[in-house]
Amino acid sequence: xxxxxYMVYCWSxxxxxxxxxxxxxxALALAFVLFYAYxxxxxxxxxxxxxxxxxTECSFKNISRLFLCCIPIAVLLIVPFTALALTEFQTVFYPxxxxxxxxxxxxxxxxxxxxxxxxxIKNNKKNISITSVILILIFLLMCGSMGKSNDxxxxxxxxxxxxxxxxxxxxxEELEAYASSDKYSGSITVLAPPNITTYVHxxxxxxxxxxxxxxxxxxxxxYTYNEYPEEYCNLYTWIxxxxxxxxxxxxxxxxxxxxxxxxYDHMETMIEKDEAIGGASYIQLAQELGxxxxxxxxxxxxxxxxxxxxxxxxxxxxQDYIPLDDTSGYILLFTE
Amino acid sequence: MNILLLILSLIICPSLIGxxxxxxxxxxxxxxxxxxxxxxxxxxxxxxVYLPTGAIIILALAGAINLLAVFTNMxxxxxxxxxxxxVLILTLISAVCSVLIAISSNTKIGGSSKIDNSSKINDRSKxxxxxxxxxxxxxxxxxxxxxGTKEKVLLVLSLFAAIAQIVIIAVGKNMTYYGDQTLxxxxxxxxxxxxxxxxxxxxxxxxxxxxxxLALQCLPFFYSVxxxxxxxxxxxxTWHIMPVFWLICGYCTIIRISDSIFKKASxxxxxxxxxxxxxxxxxxxxxxxxxxxxHAGYNSVVVLELLLVYWTLxxxxxxxxxxxxxxxAVEPLVASTRFGLGACFFITIVFIIISKIPAAxxxxxxxxxxxxxxxxxx
Lengths: 336, 378
Known about the structure:
Chain A is α/β, with parallel strands linked by helices.
């Protein structure tokens, strides 16, 4: 039952976000009415009338075949039972929106609009034709996003500071240079915030991480084939905590509700209760796990510089700084 | 320079391979059907069929060599060399076949024109009739090839849209697609010179064995091989060059569909292309076709839709069974499928089922104009 409700939710989200599907469904509905009218009055050759309207330079056979196939496919994709079956058929690695590849939305919509405008142009009343064509074009343009970007692509749900790949290139070049140096013999293992963890594997195969991108989202589980020990999870939460709160507090993981997703409310509560005792244990854990460099995001607005300097001097660590802009940048902490 | 070389190779090799295969298939078909010389395709047909056909053949070849590399633990360098040699050989053979078929069909046409000349000496009335018919044909050809003002405007608009899309994808900003790991996999293959020797998302060894589903898909292997052969960084190749190639393949398959639907009516075809390109730009919901084209054009979903699904639709319209089977066979190498059956198979099955239903058969026959005339004519 949950899965069926999820299918209904997916459909409602999809139609809300993609208005072109609405145009497509209207086109299919018009075709269905035409076919039904033909079936009901089989002695009337509606296609000859449609041909007169549209002009004859079309393969109505192929158009009919296309619409006759797209109508049942669209119904299968909307009805929750069959949509669920098709989701299983296409495998869990593709979202519901990818199923609509089967419906061939864009060619069918383009064909419908072309035929409609051709019929309007053939109309003797030019003013009505021109006005209708303009209205259709405006309606089509309004179906799009008008240039808005999609947050799901560029945002990282667990990262406060959205740094693009281009902005992080100086840091990536620096890490690659360290990896290529004699000291590290061609590769380094890095502990970094989620966006940098994502970008390093797009930039170079010589920079390794303990975990990869999208690893902490339950919906991404089918894409990952590794299971991470609790220590990796602790380090992941710790490095994100620094990015969010700018400090090196330990997090008490003995609470019953710990999941791979960051619970920020819980973290904030823990820090406010002053159960934190510093960050040295995490750096020592990172050393034990073979991390060569810890990448820490420093934002001058919220970074606890005093605590950080104290920690670095206590552990006698070397560091480097890669500026991002005037107020923020990345600190590289060398664990060896 | 390397990028230019890659672009030329991506255009020339698949086009020549597609040309050879299509011409050979049509020659064999005409011999079997004893239809004399193979029918001469229009320029539209040539443009819109050769490149996607060649691209699908190359994908099939990449898939086969990918599996060979997986099972024999071959390096990317060695398997890339084998792939490159195979593509070169296939391109040369296809080019030779195309030239030979073109020469033989021209010879046959030249022979038939000599026969016409000899009949001119014997019968003047027949000569005058045939010349009238040929000039009439020439006039009608000129008429159908001549573009009016509306067609010219639409042609300019569609070319502008196509070039703008290519430029945007080639030089525009990129995004990391949620759940996708194509680029990471290509970087991993190129740096380690092996297929799935390490987890692409960490750079470390897999804790569990990687699934066969990953090994079967040949796109990361294809991209890494191209990156190695042409010495281009994986990011530039995967995010900027390959999306443009798949987009051009998509243009060809869309032109093929429009040719099947609108039967060489230039105005309608150009109008259809303009609306299709407009819809690609406007289809901006996350995961939608248009969105994927512009932001994740290297992805298997985009290759599946633009190349395989639209191509399958074109082959179903033209009743080309072998081409449809080829698309169904190549799909598991490109996208995740259930037991090797995916979108192309599903669409083919729906087409077959619909064509068997009596009511639908009657409706399609009526649409074909069998009750009152030829298809596409009043």
